[in-house]
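quick q for whoever's on today - can somebody do inverse folding on this one?? i tried earlier but teh output was garbage lol. tokens:
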């Protein structure tokens, strides 16, 4: 392939991966799995997972769970829902899996987070709170060549 053709293919591949990432961002509360995401862009699940990881530094499933946990953090900070209600509202079907993943990403259980977050964010504007309280993780890997071929 010529350099120009290779670059054009690379851009098309990145556009497909952005579509997947945008779908996760939009539909995080829906039942999503890698197979459904891959079907949406006409790729195999394994191929999508590998390309997504190369482009963004984490698997599609991990990215989905991060989005769910970020939304759960915002809901828990409000304090008007139980942990179970938040779990199901963000699209998780298992309270145990939700709590485990939440604890891994945030460093404390959802219940403890709800108690602590209300004290830590008192007086902060919502946009500052979202930035400060975002879970720490490797969201995007350094730019690398991604090929879906």
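ok took a stab at it. sequence:
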């Amino acid at each position: 392939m010529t350099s120009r053709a290779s670059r054009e293919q690379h851009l098309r591949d990145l556009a497909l991966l952005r579509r997947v990432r945008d779908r996760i961002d939009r539909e995080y509360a829906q039942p999503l799995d890698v197979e459904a995401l891959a079907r949406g862009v006409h790729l195999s699940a394994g191929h999508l997972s590998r390309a997504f990881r190369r482009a963004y530094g984490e698997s599609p499933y991990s990215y989905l769970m991060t989005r769910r946990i970020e939304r759960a953090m915002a809901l828990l900070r409000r304090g008007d829902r139980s942990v179970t209600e938040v779990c199901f509202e963000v699209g998780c079907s298992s309270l145990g899996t939700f709590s485990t993943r939440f604890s891994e990403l945030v460093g404390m259980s959802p219940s403890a987070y709800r108690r602590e977050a209300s004290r830590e964010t008192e007086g902060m504007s919502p946009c500052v709170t979202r930035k400060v309280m975002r879970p720490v993780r490797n969201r995007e890997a350094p730019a690398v060549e991604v090929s879906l071929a």
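fwiw The helical segments are 3-27, 34-40, 45-56, 60-78, 83-89, 95-106, 110-120, 126-133. also The first helix runs from residue 3 to 27. so keep that in mind when u check it
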